[in-house]
Amino acid sequence: MTTSLPGSQDPSAATPPPQPPTVTSAVYEECAAADGTGCPVDGAVGVPGTFTVTPGAGDVQTYTYALDNGPVTSVAASGPTLTLELTPTEVGMNVLTVHTTDTAGDVSDPTSYYFDVAAGAPPVGVWSFDEGSGTTAADSSGGGHAAVLADGAGWSALGRVGSALSTSPTDATPGGYASVPSQDFTGLDTSESFTISAWARLTDASRDAVVVSQAGANGSSFALSYSAAAHTWSFDRSTSDADSPTVVGSTAVAQAQVGVWTQLMGVYDKNARTIQLYVNGVVQGAPTSFTTPWKGSGDLEFGRGLANGGYQDYFSGQIDQVELWNRVVSPQDIEGQQTMAAAGSSDDDTPALAGEWDLGDGSGTAATDSSGYGRNATLGSGAAWTDDASGARGGVLSLNGDATSYASVPGPVVDGQGDFTVSVWAYVDGSAVSDTSTEHTMRIVGQSGAASDSWGLWYTKAAGASEGSWVFGRTAADSTSAATVTSSGGDPTAGSGAQTDTWTMLTGVYDAEHHRVELFVNGVSVNPGTDDTGSAQTGGGTHFDWQPWQAAGPLSIGRGRTASGGYGDAMTGMVSGLQMWTGQVSASDVFLLYLGIPVPS
Question: Are residues 547 and 401 located together in one domain of the fold?
Fold first, then answer.
């Protein structure tokens, strides 16, 4: 006789669950096994496919499905089968998971449909603006869609990579733009899925500005733009080619920053009927529904947009590396735009120097920024120039530990919501941290906000400890009570804690896409990661679980925001050779920098 535990169902009376559904697709054939055995490579990233789901039982009420790690969606049954139009965004193995629920509420086991996806089609337009002179910018995609500079548009040698398009509108003049004539650019169809990507460096936050747009007869079909009222980036689409149309946008979750390079990407997914903005490789909120796409038939515009039949919203600043695809991009494409690595390669990132202070000026109250951006540091009254007695660093900046002993750079220098790297040589005076009865913290360099530093490099030594540690950390918010995530350690090259009374090179790398902070001491990571082959790479560090925030205050040298919200943790010692980059400096290049070899750009 079969008995049941109290409160349980008699197995003999249980209703068996519905049989799992089956899935078929003519475009994306199923793999014989999840490990890729017997797996044809079909379609491509950004190419939609039809998937037919046939239930294992006849009384299905609901289908529930998810593609890869995307959102879980439930739809009511409305026929003998379910037809899904899905667009893969992952190169390689993908999986569509489906289960059904019948009218009695019973749920089937899930079906996992594995299929292999080819790499997506290349961009239909690429403008790197590396000419540096002349009145045209070449399209390196192979399409030959050259952009023509007009109305005073020029060039800047300080591009994200190489040169950049430069524009400077005023109230009286447009200030320049570049455009690809409509008869020369027929490769983009904005009524279908597409992606637009660009790097932008905004220099005037007081006016609306368009980075890239596609013109119609009366308005822009799409625009990557900046709103002066909201102080945010957005990817916008209008519902019709008419005067004063409804504009639908996907908007950044954080405010835009002036004077820093920011990577922007807008994606329109026709199958999902959504638009999505990415900033510095990070998705900005949930996708926004957009159901009335139309094809822009006018010029492709760099630095302005069309509205109510007239051009407006001229961009102030620099624009670089604009790329267009006739498809939804993959995560690999998004990472490639953020890192500026060559398409399809595993090369290191391409960082761009954003600030460089030798800190050996020797006289005056300013430390020269030799990067070309002209962000000179101003010395506090307690900071002084001196010669390094050891002869290792020559002229350096000396800090005596009081409240006026610091240097300050107008900030921000980089967009702290994206990839960046900071490196500096520091010499901590051992006598200033010799008292073991108290805790010691000395701020070397950091990006200050209103109440806390967004990120920083510092020295810390706990009460009772015989050795201290170096730290690269980020705070979760501009608040005195915000959590701090750190990558910290001593000197891995010496097998000891943080050494005082000697020069140490500290390098902090922030990886925006993977949300990691990583500290290097004398060119070596204190907590390295590994790639698929087990080789060390930039990609270790500590995971940062919060949305990165951009502090708008100064870059502070020798002091930082403390738990009180004011400045403190003053440094006693010397600093030299401060550098900052947009982008990640690779682990190998950090070590070469320690050896005195400049970071390639």
Answer: yes
Gap between the Cα atoms of 595 and 601, Å rounded: 17
Tell me: do 333 and 296 sit in the same domain: yes
Is residue 371, in this structure, part of any structural domain at all?
Answer: no
Helix/strand/coil for 591: helix
* Beta bridge partner(s), residue 574: 398, 427
| CB 276 within 8 Å of CB 235 | yes
Model confidence, pTM: 0.85
Residue count of the chain, please give it: 601
Amino acid at 160: R
Write the CATH number for 108: 2.60.40.10
Q: Residue 125 is encoded by which pair of tokens?
A: 């337009």
Q: Are 196 and 237 in contact (CB under 8 A)?
A: no
At 65, the amino acid letter reads Y
Report which of 236, 307, 246 is spatially closest to residue 277, judged by C-alpha positions.
Answer: 236
Q: Where are the alpha helices (DSSP H) in 289-356?
A: 331-339
C-beta of residue 452 within 8 angstroms of C-beta of residue 474:
no
Same domain, 182 and 45: no
Contact status, residue 303 vs residue 202, Cβ threshold 8 Å: no
Regarding whether 162 and 60 lie in a shared domain, the answer is no
Tell me: the pLDDT tens digits for 446-479? 999 999 999 999 999 999 999 999 999 999 999 9
